[in-house]
Amino acid sequence: MALSKKIETPTGAYEQPLGLFINNEFVKAVDGRTFETINPHNEKPIVAVQEATEKDVDIAVAAARTAFEGPWKNVTPSDRGRMLVKLADLFEENVATLAAIEALDNGKAFSIAKLDIANAAGCLRYYGGWADKIHGKVIDTDPETFNYTRHEPVGVCGQIIPWNFPLLMWAWKIGPAVATGNTVVMKTAEQTPLSALYASKLIVEAGFPPGVINVLSGFGKVAGAAISSHMDIDKIAFTGSTIVGRQILQAAAKSNLKKVTLELGGKSPNIIFNDADIENAISWVNFGIYFNHGQCCCAGSRILVEEGIYDKFLERFKARALKNKVGDPFHAETFQGPQISQIQFDKIMGYIEEGKAAGAKVEVGGERHGSEGFYIQPTIFSNVTDDMKIVKEEIFGPVCSIQKFTNEADAIKIANNTTYGLAAAVHTTNLNTAFRVSNALKAGTVWVNNYNMLSYQTPFGGFKESGIGRELGEYALDNYTQVKSVRIRLGDAMFG
Ligand code: ADP
């Protein structure tokens, strides 16, 4: 089987690599297994890629270990930064191709995929800037001792990413790991392997030595499990579901106690007070739930509206949701494309049916969209109670619930009544309300009068069962460094 294939997209043709990317080369899987990736717009296979098993993980880890102990150690921090900045430039130069691959393989709108690529480039460049600014401290304890700390790389990092933002998650993970001098074995999601393989070509062009970044296509239960239980991986970073996050933590505990950071699910509240700028709030609420077809871990899926504006808000929000253009990712006006897979489609439709059966009222949507592709109508449920599954569990689709609250204390109580704690938002024109409620919400990110506005400069991660550790910003550097304390005795022997 050839290790690349010409693929046609509505914006042009390109050459798609299909191999596992190890030691800066595309190679066949040891067992020769392949799997198909599906276009969620028409449910047809796009192409088959090589499938990594435990044996390929072992080879990739050995490559990453050799690079870590040898060539990569000898690259100066400034040169590490230069390579990341070059990779960012290459992302920008290849934005049209990378975005087309995302639209084809993931189903997100091409116009929005271009923003993903711009953000991924920004993130890589940002961490390129950090590469030569990683340092420890001198700590004064007494005149006879000189103490200093070094922030050293952790080693070989396993990274497992999801399918909802394939290249953005790739950049969030690779940026801080490589900037701090680690090497990486990355497993992409089985639903969306293509863009990361194309980006792997750019790794070579950016000048990274072989083995520094290795990218494997494969399944969670095989390649993912092999990474999380590997005895020669020093750290694992995972983004995905809470259920798999638990398995990864267990695998790390049972193997070599590798360090673990997890970015997991959410059921985030979006709170609108009587005094909010209602048109603005509706735009953000709509964007908060329907952006990326509701496939965001931080999606604002529980909408809480103060009783004074509830009726007016609901009417206008319904009208706004109905205006969202659902359809072909390559159509210029599309905002919402298909869900990623048949499995996700069925899961979301299952939640919708459960909501209906439990007595919630469908205000908008509630059905599939069209007859081909994994499309679902933007859906709003009212008349919900806190014990309903659609209010408690992460749906990961274009489905939200809307509830009324009576006052600030009531809003905070409902908002925090969840096992998750990834994000939340407050819409108000009162500064005091904004601060008080932001401080009271148990969430890793709080947006005031906006939603989903992430920046690679600001940290992102979860309270409670939404995760461990923070990605992005300076905070992410802590995940990828370990502190060494060196104590030098300047005086004579102390104990004779
Ligand atoms: P989703 O349900 O949204 O697909 P998952 O948490 O299942 O999210 O998947 C996110 C990533 O985790 C994917 O790359 C997937 O292959 C991987 N994964 C799934 N199961 C496991 C597992 N048992 N061990 C390690 N990785 C896994």
Q: How would you characterize this protein structure?
A:
The protein folds into 2 domains: about 5-265 and about 460-485, Aldehyde Dehydrogenase, Chain A, domain 1 (3-Layer(aba) Sandwich), CATH 3.40.605.10; about 270-450, Aldehyde Dehydrogenase, Chain A, domain 2 (3-Layer(aba) Sandwich). Helices cover about 40% and strands about 20% of the residues. It contains 15 helices and 22 strands. The chain has helices at about 55-70, 75-95, 95-105, 110-130, 165-180, 195-205, 220-230, 240-255, 280-290, 310-325, 340-355, 390, 410-415, 430-440, 475-480, and strands spanning about 5-10, 10-15, 20, 25, 35-40, 45-50, 140, 145-155, 155-160, 185, 215, 235-240, 260-265, 270, 300-305, 360-365, 380, 400-405, 425, 445-450, 465-470, 480-490. The strands form 6 sheets. The protein has a 7-stranded mixed sheet, sandwiched between helices. Helix 3 (about 95-105) crosses helix 4 (about 110-130) and helix 4 (about 110-130) packs parallel to helix 5 (about 165-180). The longest helix is centred in the N-terminal third of the chain and has 21 residues, at about 110-130. It is globular, with a radius of gyration of 24 Å. The N and C termini lie far apart (about 70 Å). The model has no long low-confidence stretch (mean pLDDT about 100).
Q: What is the CATH H-level superfamily of the largest domain?
A: Aldehyde Dehydrogenase, Chain A, domain 1
CATH names the topology of the largest domain as Aldehyde Dehydrogenase, Chain A, domain 1
Catalogue the unreliable spans.
Answer: none
Beta-strand portion reads 15-25%
CATH architecture of the largest domain: 3-Layer(aba) Sandwich
> How many helical stretches?
15
Cofactors and ligands present? adenosine-5'-diphosphate
Instruction: Give the terminus-to-terminus CA distance.
Output: 72 Å
Number of domains: 2
How many beta-strand elements?
22
Average pLDDT taken over every residue: 98
Strands in their spatial order, largest beta sheet: 16-17-18-15-14-19-20
CATH class (first level) name of the largest domain = Alpha Beta
Q: Percent of residues in helical segments?
A: 25-40%
Morphology call: globular
Largest sheet: 7 strands, mixed
Radius of gyration: 24 Å
Coarse structural class: alpha/beta
